[in-house]
Amino acid sequence: MKSIFTSEYSFVLDRLVSARKAAGLTQSQLATKLGKPQSFVSKIERHERRLDVVEFVLVCKALDVAPREILADLEARLQGAPKARDKRLGGGKG
């Protein structure tokens, strides 16, 4: 079975897990801050549940991490990657 999670997505999750640990928070403590069950955080960290953009921002806020910092690191990581063309995002011709 092919994973729907890319190495770039794993990079973002790794940053969030590192931030949680650096803050000295358990999964349960982070979940409490988010108003979610511990399983919510566990499933995200085990790649069983994908974060949407709003959830990403809320997790960053709960960890006192600026989302733009993680996104800037991701963007830097992607600098050498081929650009995807997506007309919805203005990335393609026509």
Description of the molecule:
The protein is mainly alpha-helical and 94 residues long. It has a single domain (7-75), classed as 434 Repressor (Amino-terminal Domain). Helix content is 57%, strand content 0%. Helix 1 runs antiparallel to helix 5 (67-78) and helix 2 packs across helix 3. The chain starts with 6 loop residues before the first helix and ends in a 16-residue tail after the last helix.
Question: How does the SSE layout of this entry go?
Answer:
Layout: H1 7-22, H2 27-34, H3 38-45, H4 53-62, H5 67-78
Helix pairs in contact: 1-5, 2-3
Which features would summarize this protein structure in a list?
mainly alpha; disordered C terminus; 94 residues; 434 Repressor (Amino-terminal Domain)
Please outline what is shown here.
Helix content is 57%, strand content 0%. With 94 residues, it is mainly alpha-helical. The protein starts with 6 loop residues before the first helix and ends in a 16-residue tail after the last helix.
Overall mean pLDDT: 86
Stretches where pLDDT is under 50 for at least 5 consecutive residues are 85-94
The CATH top-level class label: Mainly Alpha
**In whole angstroms, how far apart are the ends?**
35 Å
Helix content: 55-70%
User: How many E-type strands?
Assistant: 0
The CATH superfamily title: lambda repressor-like DNA-binding domains
Overall shape: globular
Encode the helix/strand succession as letters. Answer: HHHHH
Category from helices, strands and their pairing: mainly alpha
The count of domains is: 1
CATH fold-level topology: 434 Repressor (Amino-terminal Domain)
> Rg, please?
15 Å
What proportion strand? under 5%
Number of helices: 5
Taking the sheet with the most strands, its summary is: none
> What is the CATH architecture term?
Orthogonal Bundle
